[in-house]
Amino acid sequence: MAGKVGFVSLGCPKALVDSELILTQLSAEGYETSKDYAGADLVVVNTCGFIDSAVEESLAAIGDALSENGKVIVTGCLGARKNTDGSDLIKSIHPKVLAVTGPHATAEVMQAIHVHLPKPHDPFTDLLPPIGIKLTPRHYAYLKISEGCNHRCTFCIIPSMRGDLVSRPIGEVLLEATKLFESGVKELLVVSQDTSAYGVDIQYRTGFWDGKPVKTRMFDLVNALNQIAREHQAWVRLHYVYPYPHVDDILPLMAEFADHGYGVLPYLDIPLQHAHPDVLKRMKRPASGERNMERIQAWRAACPDLVIRSTFIAGFPGETEAEFQYLLDFLDEAQIDRAGCFAYSPVAGATANLLDSPVPEVIREERRARFMAKAEEISIKRLSKKVGKRIGVLIDRVDESGGIGRSVGDAPEIDGLVRVLPASKPSKRFRVGDMIKVTVISAQGHDLIAET
Description:
Layout: E1 4-9, H1 13-28, E2 32-34, E3 42-47, H2 52-68, E4 72-76, H3 89-93, E5 99-100, H4 106-116, E6 140-144, E7 146-147, H5 158-162, E8 166-167, H6 170-182, E9 187-191, E10 206-209, E11 212-215, H7 218-231, E12 235-238, H8 251-255, H9 257-260, E13 263-269, H10 277-283, H11 292-302, E14 307-314, H12 321-334, E15 338-343, H13 361-384, E16 390-399, E17 402-406, E18 418-420, E19 435-444, E20 447-451
Parallel strand pairs: 1-2, 1-3, 3-4, 4-5, 6-9, 9-12, 12-13, 13-14, 14-15, 18-20
Antiparallel strand pairs: 7-8, 10-11, 16-17, 16-19, 17-18, 19-20
Helix pairs in contact: 1-4, 6-7, 12-13
């Protein structure tokens, strides 16, 4: 009888891809998955260890799995965290876990599973779909192009957990993208720690795709994905794009979306984190922060439909009221379409903890609230300009009240939604995964209301 493995996946889209790889390998070896603790022979918990709230959530999930099942293997970023004395953080809190690994460690996780739940004798590998096991809905998927990061931002400990940048071979990435599109995926979300740095670790080595040489670098990757997506009438969305000068080269590709309706979306997820030059220096952020406004204005000139999303930190150590006001002024001038903000949270092992003049928690939270109020004000203003226009929407959910979808400007789970009213005619009915045209009739906060 096949062993059953329960699975808990926490953290960012990059961690989700790690979970998909492990689940794919489990399926390939003949294991089954269980939807609850009681029906599982053991449980794998894929953790996040970036900020304190994520650590707490991961430790609580491990505790729940131990309480409900008793046999638990831990993987993910928190698995790489150590105590100050060098001992394992997770095992010091949950000593009964069977094994602990770091992130992107499919082989190590499988080895631990083999020890505690031997694999079935004759796995039916032919039953495994060519795209592997996905944890996302059938119509969208994440495509991870690299692991790790070469930057050493003072607030971040990801390089200590995931290592330096390691780019995947471009032929392998494009093959996976093609298989995903062929399986019915309508939107591919490109993720990494630093998408703009793709290929730098291997000096932009030449690979091959469709019998032709292609460089392992951002522009060549995006250009190829753009062509493949158009062939399959699908979207490609770029995440974690640092504002390096060479990003300018992909804006003309995004501008072409208006003529085709498919391909690389006019959408950039840019993790700016702050705007004031002094704060950016204390953060040790890559790229030239002082030129971010100039670059954003050039991007909007090259691609008027561009939607920019970004995340920021309020209350970073040493941040003065004047520096925070500078950030709010930047937000106003840049007109960031989709902005998120975290109140700074000290992360164990981050060098930012050693900086002078930490900002009191009450002020950090107050600044975060002010930031989000400003971000919502900008969002409402920009979305109101879409009222009366016809836009494309990818449907994520359908119920009696209509449908929930996303436009070009909406990444799943982190941006707004488009609420589509029930179809007035049978010919206008839609299903999950459909790409449809709708007319926007109103804007509410970060969301749009539309009709077919």
